[in-house]
């Protein structure tokens, strides 16, 4: 990003700043060398970014990925209609889409995956017992995958669920909270 001194201020979203901090903290906790290439897997909801947007009742997934490398700027705003249409054209040319499905090879060391559920209305669900008081993923299958979850207090705070080996998790917590 540019500095304020040169008159070019870049506004990053809360998600972009938090994702960058998580990515940096995980990389440090893993003890990666400074020149180690690492990628951040970010799923992007394409429903409203495509023109025309997909209808609200569309039940299928419309998830795209942006995967910056450590030295690149995270720019979710780049994921516009033109970019996503280009991705769809690319997919049409692929003989085997299974090779592009994310999995253990996507998130494992040195890479990281971060998914945000922060804007999902999970605490608005009522199955007859009232508003949920606590919601978390039951299991995160891949090492290096993180999920950002809204707090049940509806105060804007967030919860982070993540999988790392125990020795990396302890270091991650130290780096993450040392701001």
UniProtKB/TrEMBL annotation:
Report the GO molecular function annotations. acyltransferase activity, transferring groups other than amino-acyl groups
Superkingdom of this protein's organism: Eukaryota
| InterPro entries from the UniProt entry | CAT-like_dom_sf, Plant_Fungal_Acyltransferase
Q: Which Pfam families match?
A: Transferase
Similarity section: Belongs to the plant acyltransferase family.
Record-given protein name = Uncharacterized protein
**What species is this protein from?**
Phaseolus vulgaris (Kidney bean)
């Amino acid at each position: 990003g540019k500095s304020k001194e040169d008159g070019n201020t870049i506004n990053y979203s809360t998600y972009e700043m938090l994702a960058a901090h998580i990515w940096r903290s995980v990389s440090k906790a893993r003890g990666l060398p400074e020149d180690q290439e690492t990628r951040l897997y970010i799923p992007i909801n394409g429903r409203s970014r495509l023109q025309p947007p997909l209808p609200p009742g569309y039940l299928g997934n419309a998830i795209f990925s942006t995967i910056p490398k450590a030295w690149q700027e995270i720019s979710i705003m780049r994921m516009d209609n033109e970019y996503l249409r280009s991705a769809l054209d690319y997919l049409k040319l692929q003989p085997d889409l299974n090779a592009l499905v994310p999995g253990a090879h996507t998130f494992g060391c040195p890479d990281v995956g971060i998914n945000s559920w922060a804007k999902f209305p999970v605490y608005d669900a009522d199955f007859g017992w009232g508003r949920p008081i606590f919601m978390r993923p039951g299991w995160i299958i891949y090492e290096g995958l993180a999920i950002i979850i809204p707090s049940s207090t509806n105060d804007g705070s967030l919860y982070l669920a993540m999988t790392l080996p125990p020795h990396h998790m302890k270091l991650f917590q130290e780096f993450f909270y040392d701001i």
